[in-house]
Amino acid sequence: MSRTEALARRYLEHSPTALLSMIVIDVDHPDTLVRALQQPLTHPPVSWVAEGPSGRGHVGWLLKTPVVRTDAARLAPMRYAARVEEGCRRSLDGDVGYAGLLTKNPLHDEWTTTWGADHLYDLREMADALGELMPRSLPRRAADSSGLGRNCALFNRVRLWAYRARLRYDDRAEWEEVANAYATAVNWEFAIPLPLNEVEHTARSVARWTWRNFSAARFSEIQTARGRKGGRKGGKVVSEAKREANRVRATKVDRAALLAEARA
Fold first, then answer.
1. Which one of 8, 49, 133, 151 has the fewest beta carbons within 10 angstroms of its own beta carbon?
2. How far apart are CA 62 and CA 83, in angstroms?
3. Secondary-structure class of domain 150-263 per CATH
4. CB atoms < 10 A from the CB of 168, how many?
């Protein structure tokens, strides 16, 4: 819908699908405002707090430079943003199950809104303010991921799988269907899965990028280039036949099982 219509809603998406322009934490406690503003702060001064009648609410920080969340994104900024988000969540004891999609619209009369710092944040600035509360790394297991970390984990798993799996498909529609099934299967590994529309967007984005940019010829070029750089493993030359066997093994996917699980 239009911006004017969206701003009249009680809830809205705080960031575009392809960009993260705001970090938002869901505080499922009756003292959201106190947690957000009490001194000394263990998080950066907040941009806004939107509370409901129960005192539970959402706390947001506006970013100076949005973080790209599409297949064209560099994974490092996404991971860094996820770590910053987790630090803010820890500081406020926010809800680990919050998907980060919809937020209380701070401009709506339904909520009691307190406006904070008139400032746009760099992620590095937020990280410095969080100090030791910001985790050094994201969880290795998908089941332990939360918040934006789930988006990072899903994106990373799907793209790494897709680079090789793409070579097994000649029909674009079929390829996108399989990519979505794979992403859906990964999503169910999370303790609290992402909304299906988030999963579908990630799968479609990765599938379309790899369809445009990866082919058997392109993969051959990459392998040849790597071979020129060394082509050795453990002191032995890795044969072309061995490379091909490894490639087939890595790209082998039980498509029927994935689709069945996705449709269940």
1. 8
2. 16
3. mainly alpha
4. 15
